[in-house]
Design a protein that fits this description.
It is built from three helices and no strands. It has 87 residues and is mainly α.
Length: 87
């Protein structure tokens, strides 16, 4: 453990940020799995609804800096292409 007060504070704040980021990433993964499950079931309507929610959450994560903007774009693009292939 650090002795300097500012170092102790950095440890605490980084732990809080780590927990928050982990929570958001977990939520995104769950939403992506829902989209993929709907695709597997060939349910286009459910896939489109799940996709809309997933895109929103991925974009929020990118805006907060949890995901790099290119990573978020890649995830959104791949999901959108997969849903559009159901056509």
């Amino acid at each position: 453990m650090a002795n300097i007060k500012s170092a102790k504070k950095r440890i605490l704040t980084s732990k809080k940020r780590e927990m928050k980021n982990k929570s958001v990433k977990s939520k995104v993964k769950t939403l992506v799995k829902k989209v993929e499950a709907a695709i597997e079931a060939n349910d286009k309507a459910a896939a489109e609804d799940a996709l809309k929610v997933a895109i929103s959450e991925i974009s929020k994560a990118a805006n907060k800096g949890i995901y790099h903007k290119n990573t978020a774009s890649r995830k959104i693009s791949r999901l959108t292409i997969a849903v559009n292939k159901l056509g």
